[in-house]
Amino acid sequence: MSQDKIYISYDCVHKLCQKAADQILSTVGKPDVIVAIGGGGFIPSRIIRTFLRHQGEKNIPIQAIGLSLYEDLGTGSDSIGKEVIRTQWLDFGALAQHFDSLIGKNILIVDEVDDTRTTLHYALTELYNDVKENAEKLGKDMGNTKFSIFVVNNKLKEKRAEIDESLMNGGMYLSGEDVPDKWIAYPWESSDIDTHTKLAKEQGNN
């Protein structure tokens, strides 16, 4: 049964986030804000933030968005797909008051896994469009607004959507580790962390 799943330990996630942070800092630079896709992106966002700041610097703010995938069955196999629905989104009014909006910022989107890429495509596209709309309302230019994406794991499989690099404005897509197309068991989903960690170590994911 354990061979049907890939077990990932907390230590593994921690190390992958640390490695990714080094790459991010050396290429696109320190993010101004992290956007965590809930719920899988919450813990990796908090971990990677530790490695994206130097001692004495202010913490990078973490904002949360919630997205859900709904099956669209239709009639026939060709029509089967998934629709992304917003369940939680950014309050741009509050951001403008306390953070000077996201216009011109270096933004890092974080999730735990890139499976079909549907969620990541939606998150990037919608965030870009919202920042652009906000900039137009304020009479500002998108300027140096940059989007990057970090996922703990990328499944090696055919994707249902693609990431439009033109929206990223020089940002990067980064996977901590590419994995086969299997069910990934993350530690924050486990009800028995000791057994989970044991299985992760047996698979070399510690």
What do you see in this structure?
- The protein is an alpha/beta fold and 206 residues long.
- The protein has one domain (30-176): Rossmann fold, CATH 3.40.50.
- The protein contains five helices and eight strands; from the N terminus they run E-H-E-H-E-E-H-E-H-E-E-E-H.
- It has helices at 10-27, 42-52, 92-99, 118-137, 193-202, and strands at 5-7, 33-38, 62-72, 81-88, 106-114, 146-155, 173-179, 183-185.
- The strands form two sheets. The protein has a six-stranded mixed β-sheet.
- Strand 5 (106-114), helix 4 (118-137) and strand 6 form a beta-alpha-beta unit.
- The two termini are 19 Å apart.
- Residues 73-80 have low confidence and may be disordered.
Q: How much helical structure, as a percent, in the residues?
A: 25-40%
Q: Regarding CATH, which class?
A: Alpha Beta
The Cα radius of gyration reads: 18 Å
Q: Which segments are poorly predicted (pLDDT under 50) over 5 or more consecutive residues? A: 73-80
Number of helices: 5
**Average residue-wise pLDDT:** 90
What form results from the Cα inertia axes?
globular
Strand line-up across the major sheet: 4-3-2-5-6-7
Structural class: alpha/beta
Sheet having the most strands: 6 strands, mixed
Strand segment tally? 8
InterPro entries: PRTase-like, PRTase_dom
Keywords: Glycosyltransferase, Transferase
GO molecular function: hypoxanthine phosphoribosyltransferase activity
Pfam families: Pribosyltran
